User: What shape does this take?
Amino acid sequence: MADPSHPAPGAGADESPPVARPLREYDRKRDFGTTPEPSGDIVDPAPGGGQERRFVIQQHDATRLHWDLRLEHDGVLLSWALPRGLPWDPRRNHLAVHTEDHPLQYLTFEGHIPDGNYGAGRMTVWDEGTYVPEKLTDSKLTVVFDGRRAQGRYALFQTDGRNWMIHRMDPPADPERRHPPERYQLIQPGPGPAPRGRAQGWAIESFWPGLRCVLVSSGGVVDLLAQGRDPVTSYFPEVRTVGRALGFTEVALDGVVTAAGGRPRLERRLGAGSDSTRRRLARDEPVSFVAVDLLWQDGHPTTAKPWHERRRLLEDLALEGPAWTTPSAITEDVPAVLAAAARTGVGRLVAKRADAPYEPRADPAAWRIVTPAERGAKGTGRG
Assistant: This one.
């Protein structure tokens, strides 16, 4: 916050604001002939009348996904980069990196900053609204947000140079919200009979061989937790980028890391010892994460919901990307699908009961690995 080119923001919210500061550092870092960002040559005076001032939080998909908090003050926008976004839990502070002041026109800025420019990447408005400053000093701010998403009292305080922390002072807006668990028990489907008759109430999915994992994404940061292993996140850097697609949405996904080369390719990836080797293999021998179920979303388990509700929430995430996918699930004409799979020689499919919760111990037969060939040419119309 302290910058020799201009004075401090003031010792209190009730003091008269000093003269608006020039945006020299902001201008110095940008070539306005190549970036669509607004120039800093116009510094608007702060509006009069009342304590409320405007703020914006922008999701910035740059070298690393993060969120930019900007507070209107003295005709400019005080700015911080939040690598994990706003904290919802008052017991866990988040890092806030102080950056240069921005012009007020940035309150509505959205667009793509081209490669080669400072802050290159996609910028979108994640939240906007007004805030009331309760305390503003060179090293600490206390503000009350009134936005579409951000609500409540927060403190920003300096810890070391440009490094600050942001702390939620109010209780969680959702008192039932929790952090994702560190371990998950997964359903382990075994072989079983294919659904018979009209097979109503069942879903059919492809069987995906590979490394069974839980993918946890929180604040754009991804962890891959493999069953029976330590976290394997660093071995699959191409999968980590799904955090950009998920953004601020917090999820835990049951899925499979699968590779075209099968198990040997996965073992080669898991044996790579250096980051450079892992990046090379990610380029030359890529894998995909196949999301087959949703276990957690935004502070709450989804496992008690029936499969068809979890499936709808999973599809709403729209996870289709270069190293991740959501496979099709067929719930109509299941007997015809099984018969067609048998004719074309499909070896294995997974049948899931559509009304079943995600309970690994309660009913393991709710997920079954079925072999369509076992049905052969049997009739499919019996009730």
Summary: Confidence is low (pLDDT under 50) at residues 1-20, 374-383.
